[in-house]
Amino acid sequence: MAETAELVTNVSDTARWVAAFRAVESARPDALFHDPLADRVAGERGRAIAGRTPLLMHNGWNLVTRTKLIDDLIMKTIEQGCDRVLNMAAGMDTRPYRLDLPAEFVWIEADLPALVEEKDKLLAGESPRCALTRTAVDLADPEARSRFLDEALAGAQRALVLTEGLIYYLTEDEVTSLAAALARPEIAWWALDVNNQAIVKRMSKATTELLANAPWHFGPVDPLRFFADLDWTADEVEALTSAAHRFHRLPWFMKPMTLFPPPDPRKPIRSAWKPWSSVVRLTHG
């Protein structure tokens, strides 16, 4: 068994971690979703990372809850007229193979070349339920990202961009740059998961060794205010803790948190210690 810090060599390895918990969830009799490809794309490394997950993320409750909330948000957005999904830093996501999507629906994934090559091999022979395209691109390169968006959005009118599990690995400057890049008329929505400063500090402490090579950075005191200042407004907000409690996935030691009313994310968050983590859908302008 590799040393804990060696299991996650870079941010891409966290995609295997998430897939491992999707596989665990899919095997439950009361599963919130079914992902028959999750164990394959997680691989031995993903299962090993999951085995070293800190108590704060017991059984991957937050990752499973996030997956379910984003599943539902994607389907809701398609019902509202979304004509394309751009999954940026898609990792080992397999939604095009498991969601009930129209066969003609355009879904575009983007990630680093090595990960895309590996994923293509792992899923060779599998048929997505929609019109799936997978693109190799370094999204951290502003010029490459701009070229990708130009090509991926050609013909789109109401696209949804998904950046699941991405932005807390970025700096505030990098998030600001990404937000500016996505402020395009073809993009109607941006879906992502966000954490405030209190969550980032707790998670960073709990995963010091596991995520030594992929540390968290982005976590303002008031995430929605941060995006509002960039002209992005939240029209959908689902708190992970409340949703996990509703789904019966919240660890027992966190249930006392549900005895108190959750913070209203639409009101300014001034406390740097009160934890807040949500799946959010943003609109621009």
Automatic annotation (TrEMBL):
- Any Pfam family from its record, for instance, is LCM
The reply to whether DNA damage figures as a keyword in the UniProt entry is no
**Which GO terms are recorded in the biological process aspect for this UniProt protein?**
methylation
Molecular function (GO) terms for this protein are:
methyltransferase activity
The EC category is transferase
InterPro entries hit by this protein: Ppm1/Ppm2/Tcmp, SAM-dependent_MTases_sf, SAM_mthyl_Trfase_ML2640-like
Keywords on record: Methyltransferase, S-adenosyl-L-methionine, Transferase
Asked if the record carries the keyword Glycoprotein, the reply is no
UniProt EC number:
2.1.1.-
Q: Where is the signal peptide?
A: none
On the tree of life, the source organism's domain of life is Bacteria
Which protein family is it in? Belongs to the UPF0677 family.
Q: What does the function comment of this entry state?
A: Exhibits S-adenosyl-L-methionine-dependent methyltransferase activity.
Q: What is this protein called?
A: S-adenosyl-L-methionine-dependent methyltransferase
